[in-house]
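dude i think i finally got it to work??
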Amino acid sequence: MLYGKEHVRRYQETNGAEGHDWNNTTVLLLTTKGRKSGKPYTTPLIYQRHGDDFVIVASKGGDPDHPQWYKNLQANPDVGVQVMGDRFKARARTAHEAEKPELWRLMTGTWPDYDNYQRKTDRPIPVVVLEPLR
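look at this
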């Protein structure tokens, strides 16, 4: 099973032929700029489409703290995205309260464990919208 750095490497080498379809869902690669280091960091994340946008969840498995990639995009919302062989720039934003319930349902429809992760933590798990800059 692909995970972490190996997942990123195989996805990049095969333009997503290996790594896009994962555990009955779909994965994109998100590249953020380190808020302290300034270095690029690439993370494989489950996603769904919502219109022209891409939706991801900052769950960290229900950990009490946000994932590093989410902290990075809060500091710099300009990110890189790869979906299969398509690489593009996007602007990331946390879903507004009014839109979050719909987007949460979209994401739990593809990865039901998000509900379990939310039950494990007092932290409201953010839903992130990636708006392509094309």
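DSSP finds four helices and eight strands in the chain.
im so relieved honestly
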